[in-house]
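hey so u asked for the seq, here:
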Amino acid sequence: MPPRMEGKTLPEVLLADQSGHPQAPDLDWLTQLARLALSKVSLRQRDDSVLPRLTEIEITLVDDPTIARVHADFMNLGDPTDVITFHHGEILISVDTAARQAPDYQRALRDEVALYLIHGLLHLAGYRDKSPAEFDHMAQTQEDVLQDCLHET
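ran it, structure tokens below
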């Protein structure tokens, strides 16, 4: 039985890898982590969370050119970024960006991708990162959720 959130079933998590990256994380592992992270994030959702309205969350691993194009189309910023979240339940994650940034944080590539996935879920749960205080709070929350999930997977 799927996990529940406040009397409602959590959205289904659908993952796809369109990154073409040779070291992209295993989708079975990432799906398991995503479901666990979603259950943890749902307990922390805010008043403006869209999670209760979603029936599914589509998470797609992409490359830098793809995420840069989406970044330009929707946010008028033409550079690659790590993760883009749409409130209709779509999350795009750049595996290329994760591969570049993982060594800086002494993190495995799959864990860096997982962190971006959790970041996207937190946005769906109503978290923002525009101000320094919001950014710091979100960064700490996503790290806490990541560590919890890694200990359970």
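The beta strands are 4-5, 8-9, 12-17, 56-62, 83-86, 90-94. The domain at 10-142 is CATH 3.40.390.30 (Collagenase (Catalytic Domain)).
lmk if thats what u needed
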